[in-house]
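Chain A, query sequence.
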Amino acid sequence: SPPPILPTMGCDVAGKCCVVTGGGSGIGAALCRQFAQSGAAKVAVVDMNLAAAQAVADSLPAGVGLALAANCGSEMDLRRVIVEVEFKAAPIDVWAANAGIPMNGGPECPNEEWERIWKVNVMQIVFTARHMVPRWQQRGGGWLVV
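Chain A, predicted structure.
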């Protein structure tokens, strides 16, 4: 089994509530499994594809996984995720902003495509920080993993 990745980040997730965007596949799914293996109390698997998020959540130890669908390029969707996770599970300690989408072309792509990519790949971090940092300041800490 591969060595754990979290100790190198200085992030102890044991007993913590973690959120992973883009958690339904790839690196995001691996992060969800790693958080659970490292003792996270709750791992919210967030993905556009609810069925994929649910499959990852179901693969985690009983009671740890929570699947949510969200568009990470939408501030209101991310805000809803925060409210829902904190209502259903616990205050969020760790947020891994992992969701990302590729460009369908190059510089010739229309502005709408650039805006879509920018919102998911960059603005999700701003949206998350805008709503989580004040909470973490009140609570005395938290991690935004980018």
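The CA atoms of residues 46 and 89 lie 14 Å apart. Strands lie at 17-21, 42-47, 65-69, 94-96, 143-145.
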